[in-house]
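ok so i was messing around last nite and threw this chain in just to see what happens. nothing serious, just curious
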Amino acid sequence: MTTSPSTLPSRWPVWLCWLAMVLDGFDLVVLGTVVPTLIKTGELGFDAVSATLVVTITIVGVGVGALFISPLSDRFGRRKLLVACVLWFSIFTLVVVWAPNVEVFGVLRFLGGIGLGACLPSALAYMNDYAPPGSAGKSTTRTMTGYHTGAVATAFLALMVVPDWRIMFVVGGISGLALVPFLWFKLPEMLPTVRTAGAKERTGFRDLAKKPYPRIAMAIAAASFMGLLLVFGLNTGLPLLMSSSGYPITTGITLLLVLNLGAVAGLMISGVLADRHGIRRIVLPCFGIAAVCLGVLSIKFENAVLLNGLVFVTGVFVFSSQVLIYAWVTQLFPVHLRATALGFAAGVGRIGAIVGPAVIGGLVVAGIAHPWAFYVFAAAGALAVIALLAIPRTDVSARTKVDAAP
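result:
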């Protein structure tokens, strides 16, 4: 029996959610590429302290969006919320160009962060609704390669246009606005089975307190805290960290590019391995190896090839670890709790995302960023392993079958 073209699954969700993640990655990493220049020139009143505050308030906005906005997709639908999020953060990315001072700049980044924070959980929940059973790892990691592709694109663009930092925000904002009509007209509505499951139960964070979820939710949240401390600490602070260590600004931006190239490579492999061998068996070693790599980066390398190679490998394991946490969430929680659980993990994780850049900023001000920032990062990776070990060895196959049933 052949399948008619009308019954084949649409490829639009795959590409549109991936492009949404490209923009998400671009928009979150862009600050890290322009901050060293803004501090060096003092434009808009930037210095090391105000730059740390702007990075922090941006991530606070991301946390607010993840915690309080993304769960709405479980109630009102993934598509509408995803479109609204991309439109929201694209507008506030663009208007940053006209910020008259560092204070307004920070407020606009906070508002844009709200949309960014809700975008990621909504897109991942949407993609996992469409993913075949047993493919959570590949579906999640494939979608999240978009985030790191966006980060790579940001670093490439920064190398070409910085110190003209405004072009960075113009490109990001206009690209997002261009994507919105495609999301609106081409992104299918939720699958009927998912819509039915969501309609049966109205959910909220209180549902995560019901057995058997509290222990799982807290362990995932703790690991996500550590994982996003690493992700945001490195993605927003690596150029500043390297600049403060005596490297040229272009070296820091190049290392940011290499870091995210490693992330893309790692995600392409880790998702397949996770689906084949189980997410638990892959994510724990990933965090452990990431911790070791970050500890080794505390050594100041004179050889550029060795430094770039180590940063690439670090990107492979750091970012695979965090994304596999999201993939695991989609297996550990039923479909009607999927976006809520993802939002909780991402929202609590954003506290770690605040801590990471704040730690780098504080250490830079104190003049001890290298090597102490890498010691902190290595400890975070080790603590994530401990947190994930608290998750019971749950057989999720039964839950997956229930969710997939009409």
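not much to say yet. Residues 1-8, 192-197, 395-406 have pLDDT under 50 and may be disordered.
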